[in-house]
Design brief:
The complex is a heterodimer of chains A (109) and B (115). By secondary structure, chain A is mainly beta. Chain A has no helices and eleven strands. The model of chain A has no long low-confidence stretch (mean pLDDT 95). By secondary structure, chain B is mostly beta strands. Classes of the chains: A mainly beta (109), B mainly beta (115).
């Protein structure tokens, strides 16, 4: 079966750095997405990786290793507004998105 | 209106009722999706429409019936639902170019409670 694994919940301190991991086992791979979802709101797109390596976008970076079936989202200089759920999703060989259950990130002052 | 809109935002219905959820995208995209989101579970893809043609139906019970009259509008018709159908129903759209790199844009969702 297809599976995406992420930690259920993480806690970090304002101003610090946090890394949210995602491992996947899917039938084929056609890209990996990270989305942010604030409580009661729609998921919003953060990043896309299809080749190995690091993609940087301001305070957020996303890394991919296809050989390891692994990705992480790195958030720097954490702000209170970063408290949200972070969803990892992989597009499989049929171009269907397989979603993880999300990681709830709690930022403390 | 911009982005993806959904109505209603909240819906409470009995198991014998019939209701419809509406989604509209103002982005000129060619694909639209219905997802179910339950607490602490992954997003479940229900239906996909590409160029108004249904391309995915992930074993969704027949009490959920989608309709896509044009590339901007998507409906989810509900009838004789069960309490376990209570969830957040999200609509999304994307511009698919066959490369698989397009991100999906989500609406705010409809919080459905079945009593």
């Amino acid at each position: 079966g297809q599976n995406i694994d992420q930690p259920t919940e993480m806690t970090a301190t304002e101003g610090a750095i946090v890394q949210i991991n995602c491992t996947y086992q899917t039938s084929g791979f056609n890209g990996l997405f990270w989305y942010q979802q604030h409580a009661g709101e729609a998921p919003t797109f953060l990043s896309y990786n299809v080749l190995d390596g690091l993609e940087e976008k301001g305070r957020f970076s996303s890394f991919l290793s296809r050989s390891k079936g692994y990705s992480y989202l790195l958030l720097k200089e954490l702000q209170m507004k970063d408290s949200a759920s972070y969803l990892c999703a992989v597009r499989d060989s049929n171009y269907q998105l397989i979603w993880g259950a999300g990681t709830k990130l709690i930022i403390k002052p | 209106e911009t982005g993806v809109t959904q109505t209603p935002r909240h819906l409470v219905m009995g198991m014998t009722n019939k209701k419809s959820l509406k989604c509209e995208q103002h982005l000129g995209h060619n694909a639209m999706y219905w997802y179910k989101q339950s607490a602490k579970k992954p997003l479940e893809l229900m239906f996909v429409y590409n160029f108004k043609e249904q391309t995915e139906n992930n074993s969704v019970p027949s009490r959920f019936s989608p309709e896509c009259p044009n590339s901007s509008h998507l409906f989810l018709h509900l009838h004789t639902l069960q309490p376990e159908d209570s969830a957040l129903y999200l609509c999304a759209s994307s511009q698919e170019d066959g490369q698989g790199s397009s991100e999906q844009y989500f609406g705010p969702g409809t919080r459905l409670t079945v009593t």
